[in-house]
Amino acid sequence: MQAYIALTPGDGIGPEVVAQAQRMLDAVAARYGHTFRYTTHLIGGCSIDQHGTALTDEALAACQSADAVLLGAVGGPKWDDPNAAVRPEQGLLKLRKGLGVFANLRPVKVHHALLDASPIKPEVLKNVDMVVVRELTGGLYFGSPKGEDVVNGQAHAVDTMEYTESEVERVVRLAFQMAQNRKKKVTSVDKANVLATSRLWRRVTNRVAADYPDVTLEHMLVDTASMKLIASPASFDVMVTENTFGDILTDEASLLAGSMGLLPSASLGESGPGLYEPIHGSAPDIAGKGTANPIGTILSAALLLRYSLKLEVEAAALENAVEKAIHARACTPDLGGKLSTSQVADYMLEQF
Asked: Where does Mg(2+) bind (predicted)?
């Protein structure tokens, strides 16, 4: 296979972890006879500094023409002013919209060798293997009207949570399709006792569920889900939810694995390139120190192989290399290891 992969390393530790994922992709290409071509583009704060915008139209066009996009992270204290007209996160939202990705898949698997790395009791973590499917293009982040003004002499701000039937259906249907190849259970998370959007979400979910009689559906309010995610995480298989709830719950779920640095994600659309990134942020406090955990980005590269390039054997081989490193505790300090960012990849390449 010949494939074109656009790299958007971003800010903070983004360039460090993306570089290690690229090394692993190159090893996959060499071992299996593929050719991967890369281009690198600015996004986030570094793009603001150089171009005055968080993502240029040229960078977006390059990503749109790729087979897949591998992202690092965006943001940092330098660009944290909430009143700034241009912010790093705008580049990420522009990229998601430009690629047409609407579902963010975040697998959460607890490795036996890392049971002691999580603050959760080891007996609670056994057999945790779930996927959160987060709707990515609707809800509070994109609804209109949005903004801040002055009403009756007071500052007034509004964000609108809105969804259409088709937006809900496509992401819920994807969740059911994933569940068919897993443990055949979908948990749909909403706030239907309060929110009109959640009541629409629940009605559409029930209708879609009728097309998948082999999959069990349960509805759960988001506050209950946030509690059960800690109390009984192994009870979940595929969780599907709207944008804001998914953003919060997936960060909570990272506690199960032991470190945010472990978890990958894949953002998929109906066509075009997928967007792959670790769930962690730019971690500016450790940028340049060589201690950033590259595993989440390397596992994101495995998802890239699986979903965009349809290379299942290669994806599994990369995941196996990660498993070997974790089992040997060939890890960075956040997981109790002593290796640097590049040394973790060195170990995986030796086992690959």
From this structure: 223, 247, 251
Q: Which residue has the tokens 């330098």?
A: 78
Q: Is 101 left (phi over 0), alpha (psi -120 to 50) or beta?
A: beta
Binding residues for Mg(2+): 223, 247, 251
Structural domain boundaries enclosing 50: 1-101+261-352
Q: Which of 202, 226, 257 is the last residue of a domain?
A: 257
- The catalytic residues are 141, 191, 223, 247, 251
Q: Which of 229, 257, 285 is the last residue of a domain?
A: 257
Residues contributing to the annotated binding site for substrate:
96, 106, 134, 223
CA dist., res. 15 & res. 145, Å (int): 36
> Are residues 133 and 250 located together in one domain of the fold?
yes
One domain, residues 223 and 269: no
Is 0.70 topped by the overall pTM? yes
pLDDT tens by residue, the chain, 352 residues: 999 999 999 999 999 999 999 999 999 999 999 999 999 999 999 999 999 999 999 999 999 999 999 999 999 999 998 889 999 999 999 999 999 999 999 999 998 888 888 889 999 998 999 999 999 989 998 899 999 999 999 999 999 999 999 999 999 999 999 999 999 999 999 999 999 999 999 999 999 999 999 999 999 999 999 999 999 999 999 999 999 999 999 889 888 988 889 999 999 998 889 999 999 999 999 999 999 999 999 999 999 999 999 999 999 999 999 999 999 999 999 998 999 999 999 999 998 8
Q: How far, CA to CA in Å, does 41 sit from each of 53, 58, 156? A: 13, 9, 37
